[in-house]
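Archive maintenance. Older records in this collection stored only the sequence; we are now back-filling the structure field for every entry so that each record is complete. The fields below show one back-filled record exactly as it appears after the update. Entries are processed alphabetically, and Cytochrome P450 4A10 is next in the queue.

ARCHIVE ENTRY
Title: Cytochrome P450 4A10
Organism field: Podospora fimiseda
Length field: 481
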Amino acid sequence: MMASQFSSLFLEIGKTNPWLTGVFFLNLCLFTLFAYRVHLHPLSHVPGPLVAKCSSLWLHYHAYVGDECTRIRRLHEKYGPVVRVAPNEVDIADGDAIAHIYSAKTDLVKSSHYTKFAVDTHTTVFSTLETTDRSARLKAVMPLFSASGVRESKPVIEDCVAEFVMRLKTEAESGRVVDVLNLTEAFACDVTTACLFGESYGALKETVAPFSVAGYFDSFLSPGRFFYMPTATWAVLEWLAAALFSNKQIGPSISSVNSYVDRLLKSSKTKSSSFQGRLLSQGVPPLETAAECKDSIFAGGYFIGVVVAHILWFLVRNPDKYAALRRELLDSRTSSESLPYLQSVVKEGLRLSMPSPARLPRIVSKDRLIVQNYRLPPGTNVGLGALQLHLNPDVFPEPEKFLPERWEHPTAEMRRDWVPFGMGVRSCIGRVLSNVVILEVIKAVVESDLLAGVRAVQEKIEVKEWTISQLKEKEILLAWG
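Back-filled structure field:
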């Protein structure tokens, strides 16, 4: 009887006020959807805040404003190592899960989120979801990134390092406050291009700051704000963001990089053993080869540049660590690979700088995944992030302090959870090259004693915690004199 009366009342309201009927139906649909996600969804047993279980808007918002990792870290402190951060997204802060998620044996593929990092509409070794094309391209270029390939590039690296030290010395003698991030990004761009393409971009030779690659790097970072959004929605929001918050440096910077890459592909070096030549000889079309080149310029230039600038800042902020490193260098004339404290300084710098701090999502395949006794069904986006692992106090005591000494006797958990180059089969292909370059440039700067008596302008370096982080101030300032 009550149902009949309710139906009659609802029909009467619908005749007199159709808008109220529409609102009622909308609210009923939302209530049903939210009730399903909270109580009946296959992930309903995974702990997390109610707002994240109901909607992805919580994750989208924090990804956009750039505090995603810090917010999720707080959730882990409250709920434990496995947290539901969106209706179909799970974040994990347990290093034991690395092997289960990123191993080739588990066959978990990258989520579709990564396609937002396509270059000129072409997916690259980093952004592609397909393993077949990626494997063929990797096979072609891996000799350049292998230990032997990097050894062959040592003279080129040393030349670029020497040029950087001279430029840093010139800037220091000017009496101005120096943005070392601008310098290290220019250096990293030059050493990456010289080693891979056989022709340096020449950023350090530019006389006007910021260098011409700066805007190009910024253009690569912006998709991280919309990383978890559906691609169609992201395309609209990205267009709006570009229209409303345009950066005048980006257009000319992209044009400069495009001209450089176009010149590479037209030159005789394309027939050599260079990065671009290897791809072209493998049958990769020129436009896709160009996209791979541009992706490598960003990956090497930005990653190395950010890490080196952070390490210089850490050494200035910790004069006792700088003195210890300088003593080691003065007492030994061996290669950088044989200097344990230098190795520790770089490891600690990589742990704290984290150019890629956020979760690296993978899709659970047809077989369910069990982590910490939680059963994650097929289709779930799941992953770990460097920030959760690198700042875990159970693994790294006093995690936010720069303590190179912690690497004198690293635990198995420290080695497992140190993931600055990513995790598993899709980890960074340039990790060997990057590590050698960072070691060589830090060694050269400290040997020259250019950081003696230097003052760090910023008390703290803050970043936007996107998939690839961006410094909020976009600069790291050091003052000489």
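Update note: The two ends are 88 Å apart (CA to CA). Residues 123 and 387 are 26 Å apart (CA to CA).
Entry marked complete.
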